[in-house]
Design a protein that fits this description.
globular, 9 strands, three-stranded antiparallel beta sheet, 9 helices, alpha/beta
Length: 253
């Protein structure tokens, strides 16, 4: 365990610096399982789909559950898609990456990047993987569309990487996200709108019943965190030391 010159664990030192009180809570790990967007070579605009073993009784059990689901997911993708075939060749040519020929290839953040184009396909794969390991109600999902990447001219192009655009208005994208939340056990939605699309963040937050996380929206920047709080744009934040640069600034955020 890391120790400071004060003779206390590092987490205790940071707790004191931050003025945090209350019991310690080990967080539920959210693990990247499927990738799209700029992180992968498939045709899906949404960037990340994560598994969250919320029913685990310990961190070790959570990691075991997640690892089992992840490997089951790989098996399912291989069975369903095998070689990505013609689609894989098209993607590979566009991205100049021969790695995309295999359906079980991974994206930039180690989630699988099979030849899928819509979020429902990703979530259906996760549902099958979770059911295969008998974890219903113990493993939930998280989505990070990274919507800034496919935002432009006041609309969102879900066909960003496809030959035919699939343009949605902010209201249509909001309805689409609500449908996903109602149909699948999604417990966290990160960056569903572009980083400066404040009005639609605020409108969506009014009826959002899950963790609505601002990452690109807030970038661990004190001014943007304050603005998001004052505007009631989201109810959660992603705290990243690498975004703001120092522990003290992260604590302030």
């Amino acid at each position: 365990m890391l120790m400071t010159v004060q003779g206390v664990p590092l987490y205790e030192f940071i707790r004191k610096e931050a003025g945090v009180t209350g019991p310690y809570i080990v967080p539920v790990p959210f693990l990247n399982a499927l990738n799209g967007g700029v992180h992968a070579g498939n045709m899906m605009a949404f960037q990340e789909f994560m598994i969250a073993p919320v029913g685990a009784t310990s961190f070790a059990e959570a990691m075991r559950m997640a690892a089992e689901v992840y490997h089951r997911l790989k098996q399912l993708i291989a069975e369903k898609f095998g070689s990505a075939g013609k689609l894989g060749l098209i993607v590979a040519r566009r991205l100049e990456s021969a790695n995309m020929l295999k359906a079980t290839g991974i994206g930039d953040e180690d989630g699988f990047a099979p030849p899928i184009s819509m979020p429902e396909q990703a979530l259906d794969l996760l549902e099958t993987a979770v059911a295969g390991y008998e974890y219903p109600n113990k493993v939930k999902y998280s989505i990070d569309p990274a919507s800034s990447e496919f935002f432009g001219e006041k609309s969102y192009n879900l066909g960003l990487k496809q030959t035919t655009p699939n343009v949605a208005s902010p209201a249509e994208l909001a309805d689409f996200n609500r449908r996903l939340i109602s149909q699948y056990p999604i417990v966290l939605l990160e960056d569903p709108f572009a980083e400066d699309d404040w009005g639609n963040w605020c409108e969506f937050k009014k009826t959002c019943q899950i963790e609505l996380v601002g990452d690109d929206l807030q970038v661990t920047n004190v001014a943007r965190v304050r603005e998001a709080y004052n505007k009631k744009a989201c109810n959660s934040m992603l705290l990243k030391l690498n975004q703001i640069g120092t522990v003290s600034e992260a604590i302030e955020a």
